């Protein structure tokens, strides 16, 4: 049957180990921690563990810890040698022992230590299997300590064990909740053993040790001190004191008080005296004063008789004060028990004890605190990296979040790709098109550089050359303007002869160049010609006084447009001034022709188109014709007047 003890650590890595073994370990070279190791033992009622069998040389290696999901195990733990084990202790200074797998419902404090007691002993293989199954909650930097013992262990049921390092040795303490006499408690305590150490009623030689008992139990309990005869030597006390020899040797209130003194009577401190300063009663009785630590309650020890029994024995945790009191040996009232201590000293080991039957191994556990580095693609100039995880505590790098595959930043770094260049040839700018310097473009990152080695970054805009613009020459008439026809003049760019620019020359106005304002004398036979500046190809006809003249009444020829009237037409004209209009498909021009009778032309008038003909009056003016016309007009007026009168009368 397996029994499990539960500890609260006072000192890192100290649990269930023999003193001589511990004194040789590095743990005992550390400064005293002053922390309690509370062990809860859940044992079968009245059960005890049997004496250890002889063991061959044993060894213990925890191997590398396995950390997964914040749980630590030791799947590679190895126990060497062939032995029968009676206890295994696992303790941690951080984190805790997971209780769910071991029914550790009564584990004390923060579950930092547990001890398995093997009632009938367990083989190396069985203990190794158990050790490998133990699970711990992980904390970085935690130290795990495992102790195995093949030495005898005999512990009463339901006792809490606390360990304290005192003067380089580990002392263990339990409280047994049993109301028995001091003498019986003295003897029973000596029957207990813990990891090969003999038990004895607790001896309290310092305030710190006193506080240990306070932490174990608040109940009143026997401790290993008594008022005894000075006849006892220190060497005799622990070896020979028992219930049968106390009575004749201790002082009483009525006899031989002057020959007594308070001392510790068991364990390695047997023979150390205890102060009784402040106790007037005992000084009156002549009890000698000791020199060692004491914590007497006020007015104690007073040596009073209780039910005619002398108060010769020490109890601690005197009610309400947690101090000391002297009391009769068989006093069992008030709810009490006794405190048992285990420590290494000469004569304090069980029969068959061997320090080789105890073995301890410790392992520092590192729990990785991982920070993820996201994957980054490399660029032409910048390195990239694969995804990886870095432990902020130890600095190690892993490929995965579970830290199963170690790597390095260097191994996960991806080199820069380098530029993949495409050359753009230099192009000279033209009048209308931009040009550019030679440059190189990376097809990967899109950056632009002046050189193929990518030493000088630039931009397409910076390497673009603006169009030069035209450098025009002089305007040159390429198509002259004509009457009614626009002309064209052009100019050519001196940089590129294929670049030309044209503009319109305003069309010339139509004009009579020759023959304007001539005078034709009827029946004179004179040739009348007028020349206009319009092109014959544009000529569409001639008009006289706004009416189109039939083309058979004149002739027309080039040069530019020369119109000659036929005499038959002219002679048919009446005397007067005529407007002659040259009509073109895009315009017209007017001239003037004077027609006169023969003999009416002023002698000074010539045929110049700058003279206006003059019509003469006189006989040639035909006065008879004019008189006839006047008579007709008067007759018409008279007829109109008469007609009007007749209408008025009606």
Task: Tell me about this structure.
- The chain has 650 residues and is α+β, with helices and mostly antiparallel strands.
- Helices cover 15% and strands 34% of the residues.
- The strands form eleven sheets. It has a 15-stranded mixed β-sheet that branches. Strands 40-47-46-42-43 form a five-stranded mixed β-sheet, with no helix packed on it. A four-stranded antiparallel β-sheet has the order 4-5-10-8, with no helix packed on it.
- Mean pLDDT is 79; it is low at 1-55, 101-109, 240-256 and 603-621.
Secondary structure blueprint with pairings:
Elements: E1 2-7, H1 19-24, E2 37-42, E3 59-61, E4 66-68, E5 71-73, E6 78-80, E7 85-92, E8 96-97, E9 113-122, H2 124-133, E10 136-137, E11 142-149, E12 160-166, E13 169-176, H3 182-191, E14 193-194, E15 197-201, H4 207-216, E16 220-229, H5 234-240, H6 243-249, E17 260-264, H7 280-285, E18 305-306, E19 309-310, E20 313-318, E21 323-327, E22 336-342, E23 358-365, E24 370-373, E25 384-385, E26 388-391, E27 397-398, E28 406-407, H8 409-412, E29 413-414, E30 421-424, E31 435-436, E32 439-442, E33 448-449, E34 457-458, H9 460-463, E35 464-465, E36 476-479, E37 487-492, E38 500-505, E39 512-514, E40 518-521, E41 528-532, E42 539-544, E43 547-549, E44 554-558, E45 561-565, H10 567-571, E46 576-584, E47 587-596, H11 623-649
Parallel strand pairs: 16-22, 40-47
Antiparallel strand pairs: 1-2, 1-9, 2-12, 3-6, 4-5, 5-10, 7-9, 7-11, 8-10, 11-23, 12-13, 13-22, 14-15, 15-22, 16-17, 16-20, 18-19, 20-21, 24-26, 25-29, 26-27, 27-28, 30-32, 31-35, 32-33, 33-34, 36-37, 37-38, 39-41, 41-45, 42-43, 42-46, 44-45, 46-47
């Amino acid at each position: 049957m397996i029994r499990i003890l539960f500890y609260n650590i006072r000192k890192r890595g100290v649990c269930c180990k023999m003193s001589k073994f511990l004194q040789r370990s590095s743990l005992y070279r550390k400064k005293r921690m002053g922390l309690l190791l509370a062990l809860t033992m859940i044992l079968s009622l009245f059960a005890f563990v049997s004496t250890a069998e002889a063991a061959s040389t044993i060894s213990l290696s925890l191997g590398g810890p396995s950390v997964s999901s914040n749980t630590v195990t030791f799947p590679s733990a190895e126990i060497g040698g062939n032995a029968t084990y009676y206890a295994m202790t696992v303790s941690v200074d951080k984190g805790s022992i997971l209780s769910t797998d071991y029914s550790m419902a009564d584990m004390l404090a923060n579950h930092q230590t547990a001890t398995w007691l093997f009632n009938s002993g367990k083989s190396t293989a069985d203990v190794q299997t158990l050790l490998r199954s133990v699970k711990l909650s992980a904390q970085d930097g935690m130290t795990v300590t495992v102790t195995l013992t093949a030495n005898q262990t005999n512990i009463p049921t339901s006792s809490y064990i606390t360990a304290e390092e005192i003067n380089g040795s580990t002392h263990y303490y339990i409280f047994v909740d049993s109301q028995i006499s001091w003498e019986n408690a003295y003897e029973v305590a000596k029957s207990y053993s813990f990891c090969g150490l003999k038990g004895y009623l607790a001896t309290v030689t310092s305030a710190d040790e006193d506080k240990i008992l306070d932490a174990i139990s608040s109940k009143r309990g026997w401790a290993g001190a008594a008022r005894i005869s000075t006849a006892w030597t220190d060497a005799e006390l622990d070896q020979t004191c028992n219930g049968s020899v106390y009575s004749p040797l201790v002082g009483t209130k009525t006899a031989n008080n002057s020959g007594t003194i308070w001392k510790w009577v068991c364990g390695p401190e047997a023979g150390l005296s205890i102060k009784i300063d402040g106790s007037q009663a005992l000084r009156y009785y002549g009890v000698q004063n000791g020199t060692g630590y004491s914590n007497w309650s006020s007015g104690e020890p007073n040596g009073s008789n209780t039910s005619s029994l002398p108060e010769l024995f020490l109890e601690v945790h005197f009610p309400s004060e947690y101090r000391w009191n002297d009391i009769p040996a068989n006093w069992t009232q008030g709810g009490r028990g006794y405190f048992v201590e285990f420590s290494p000293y000469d004569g304090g080991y069980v029969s068959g004890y061997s320090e080789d039957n105890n073995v301890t191994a410790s392992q520092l556990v590192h729990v990785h605190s991982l920070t993820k580095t996201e994957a980054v693609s490399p660029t032409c100039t910048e390195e990239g990296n694969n995804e990886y995880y870095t432990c902020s505590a130890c600095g190690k790098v892993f490929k995965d979040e579970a830290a199963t595959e170690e790597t390095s930043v260097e191994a996960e770094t991806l080199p820069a790709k380098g530029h993949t260049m495409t050359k753009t040839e230099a192009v000279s700018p033209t009048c209308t098109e931009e040009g550019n310097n030679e440059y190189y473009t990376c097809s990967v990152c899109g950056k632009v550089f002046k050189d193929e080695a990518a030493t000088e970054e630039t931009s397409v805009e910076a390497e673009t050359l603006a169009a030069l613009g035209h450098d025009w020459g002089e305007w040159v008439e390429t198509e002259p303007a004509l009457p009614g026809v626009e002309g064209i003049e052009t100019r050519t760019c001196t940089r590129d002869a294929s670049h030309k620019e044209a503009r319109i020359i305003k069309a010339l106005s139509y004009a009579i160049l020759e023959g304007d304002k001539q005078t034709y004398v009827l029946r004179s036979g004179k040739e009348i010609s007028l020349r206009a500046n319009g092109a014959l190809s544009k000529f569409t006809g001639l008009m006289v006084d706004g009416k189109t003249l039939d083309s058979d009444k004149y002739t027309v020829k080039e040069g530019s447009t020369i119109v000659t009237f036929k005499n038959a037409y002219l002679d048919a004209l009446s005397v007067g001034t005529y407007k002659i209009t040259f009509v073109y498909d895009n315009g017209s021009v007017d001239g003037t022709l004077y027609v006169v009778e023969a003999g009416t032309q002023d002698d000074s008038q010539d045929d110049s188109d700058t003279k206006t003909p003059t019509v003469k009056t006189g006989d040639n003016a035909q006065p008879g014709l004019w008189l006839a016309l006047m008579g007709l007009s008067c007759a018409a007026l008279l007829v109109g007047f008469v007609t009007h009168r007749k209408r008025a009368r009606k």
